[in-house]
Write a structure and sequence with these properties.
Number of strands: 13
Helix content: 25-40%
Oligomer: single chain
Radius of gyration: 18 Å
Order of helices and strands: EEEHHEEEEEHHEEEHHHEE
Largest sheet: 6 strands, antiparallel
Shape: globular
Structural class: alpha+beta
Bound molecules: magnesium ion
């Protein structure tokens, strides 16, 4: 198994009565899920998502990017069916952002990344912070259209509306791709409770302050979110790749596998199950 050092932290925040986020870190699998829905249903949905991935992606056998996507699809269907069968859980859903050690199709191991919703996965390399995932959210669509800036999105009154989540439709498109294990890479998974409170510059500064201690970094980021207001639950998972390929030249601009790459290098690119590619996504109001 790839040599990865990791830490994680979750907190209900300063205003919420419960924590609807769930996380997992270890055994080659790292997950953050941010649940939505009343009467504790959001808590159920995010826990189901994390548990399904843990069950479907055991550390004792090699998993591929397709296994990761299938596990997310299975979690989606399980949450959807539960929400239909139990009136108390009607409309429950969850985001998911996940990183898994997978078998590299060529040789050795790689990292698979899967994302649905507005939780995020970031990469720190060469002391730069870059968001790897693209939010499935209303404000992200406004940013993409050029209607608002990224900074304006952080304080937008509709920033909590996600446009894709697990549990809302029986099938869901999953953003998924792979990237090589690069020595020195730090990968950060988080729920929106962090990014709504703490600016990217400050997130990077905290991560660099705790460069050798992912657990301290995760705790410091959650503390920062709470100190900034803590309006939402905040969850952070930090993993450091200890053994891998040499990092690319920092002057190279294209040193990150783009999420929506052209696929001409043999990486997974945009893996979307064929049978779900034409599914429309509904607007889903999150836990605000
Ligand atoms: Mg949240």
């Amino acid at each position: 198994m790839a040599e990865i050092r990791y830490g994680s932290c979750t907190h209900q925040g300063m205003l919420r009565m419960q924590n609807e986020d769930h996380a997992h870190a270890g055994d080659g699998l790292f997950v953050v899920a941010d649940g939505m829905g009343g009467h504790l249903a959001g808590e159920v949905a995010s826990e189901m998502a994390v548990d399904t991935l843990r069950l479907r992606l055991p550390a004792d056998r090699p998993n591929g990017i397709r296994d990761l996507v299938d596990a997310v699809a299975e979690a989606n269907l399980a949450i959807y069916q539960d929400s239909i069968e139990d009136p108390n859980r009607s409309g429950m859903g969850t985001t998911i952002t996940a990183v898994a050690v997978i078998a590299d199709p060529h040789d050795g191991e790689a990292l698979g990344i899967a994302n649905v919703g507005d939780s995020r996965t970031y990469l720190v390399r060469h002391q730069r912070l870059r968001q790897l995932t693209i939010d499935h959210s209303y404000v992200q669509e406004l940013v993409a259209e050029g209607a608002i800036t990224r900074d304006e999105a952080r304080d937008h009154p509709r920033r909590n509306i996600v446009t894709r989540a697990l549990g809302i439709e029986p099938v869901i498109p999953v953003d998924a791709w792979s990237m090589p294990l690069i020595r020195g890479d730090r990968i950060v998974l988080c729920s929106d409770g962090l990014v709504d409170e703490v600016h990217d510059d400050d997130i990077l500064s905290i991560l660099l302050t705790h460069a050798d201690d992912p657990q301290a970094a995760a705790e410091a980021l959650v503390d920062a979110a709470n100190e900034a207001g803590g309006r939402d639950n905040t969850t952070v998972v930090v993993l450091d790749v200890l053994v891998g390929d040499d990092p690319p030249d920092p002057t190279e601009e294209l040193d990150v596998v783009p999420p929506w790459g052209t696929d001409d290098d043999g990486d997974a690119g945009d893996v979307t199950p064929d049978d779900t590619s034409d599914v429309d996504t509904n607007d889903v109001d999150t836990n605000d």
